[in-house]
Every structure is written in C-alpha cells, then in structure tokens.
Amino acid sequence: MDSEGILPNTDYRRRTYAFNGGYNLSKWLKISSSINYINSGSDNRPNNSYGTENIMYLWCGLVVR
Questions:
Q1: What is the pLDDT at residue 23?
Q2: Edge to edge, what strands does the sheet with 11-24 contain?
Q3: Phi (first) and psi of residue 60, to 5 degrees
Q4: Beta carbons within 8 Å of 56's beta carbon, 6+ residues apart
Q5: Burial class (CB in 10 A: 0-12, 13-18, 19+), 55
Q6: Looking at the predicted structure, is the pLDDT value of residue 64 above 70?
Q7: Of 16, 19, 30, 46, which is most buried with the most CB atoms under 10 A?
C-alpha cells in the first residue's frame, strides 16, 4: 500500500507479507503455522497529537480567531 497524504510532502508506505501452511500427520492430527510480517514507514508524517506540533491544531486556531 502506498498513499499520499492531504498535506504536501506526506506519504505512507506499508508492505505486508503473510505465509501459512499445514500438514496432516494422521487422520486426526494436523499441524499448521502462520507467519505475518508488516513493514511500514514514512518520510514525513504529520504529528497526530493534541498540541502545537499538529498542523490541524494550528489551522483551527487561525480559523476560530
């Protein structure tokens, strides 16, 4: 998944890999396994907290005043 944000120069990349398999040892016994790997990252993500480091917090402050 590659996505670009609403704000300029923001992006998000995520790669997901999933592997699973199983083997029947007998008529009543089966062994199965599953592995998931997720790698995500961004070059420039905005802060999502409440405070002055959040771009929307600053923008809303300008509109209200």
A1: 96
A2: 2-4, 11-24, 30-41
A3: -65, -35
A4: none
A5: middle
A6: no
A7: 46
Tokens of 48: 């999502």
Retrieve residue 27's tokens.
């008529």
- pTM for this predicted structure: 0.51
- Cβ contacts of 2 within 8 Å, gap of 6 or more: 11, 12, 13
Q: Measure the CA–CA gap between 19 and 65, rounded to whole angstroms.
A: 54
List pLDDT tens digits, range 4-63: 766 677 778 889 999 999 999 999 999 999 999 999 887 776 666 666 666 666 666 555
Q: Which residues pair with 58 in a beta bridge?
A: none
